[in-house]
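ok so i was messing around last nite and threw this chain in just to see what happens. nothing serious, just curious
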Amino acid sequence: MTEFNLPIGTELFIEHLESDGQEYSCVTLIGFLHAQSLIVTMPKREEHVVQIDRGDELIVRFSKADTIYAFSSKIMEINRAPYPHVHLTYPENIQAKLLRRGNRIDVAKHALQLKIKNSDFDGAVTIADMSEHGAKLISDRSLGQLEEKLTIELDLPQYPEKVELNCKICHTESFMDEDSNKQTYCHGIEFFGLNTMALSFINSFIYENIERVKNSSI
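result:
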């Protein structure tokens, strides 16, 4: 039996397996009893409580430092008194994945459009490639200077909230795009301070694109 020792108040990111991995929600850990159950708040997506049932199967993720953890669980009980809370089965095995540099793949053909939060920038920005620690952004205007910090915001329907990727600019260059004949800017960024949802998105995005590359080569 895995030893579970997370502080109360830790945010947990839940993937609902009944939705074929397409729906996620967030809960807060409010208690646990070793080898018995975890007690969490009602799962929410976009500030709305998510419909759940006893026996629902879940993948639960959380992050600590540079590692993302995941374990399988089920909903044991749903209680409304004295306050709404949920009992999850205690994890049998927790898998850990250290986020290392590397595994960078070209995603230009499957690029995502994004917004820069708290910025005057209103041009087009595209993620051209991504790894677990950073990405390459292509834009029609400069995003900022070296070491400048940005927050990338992605509004994706399968996530309970907007995914925010905190980053800083570590490389920048400009070139003339041959197709559009316009000045184009390339920025190398490094991620920092990512929450569980952001880490899950990055890993899912990389995996999905690796699978596309594999399938296209068959």
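not much to say yet. Residues 16 and 58 are 5 Å apart (CA to CA).
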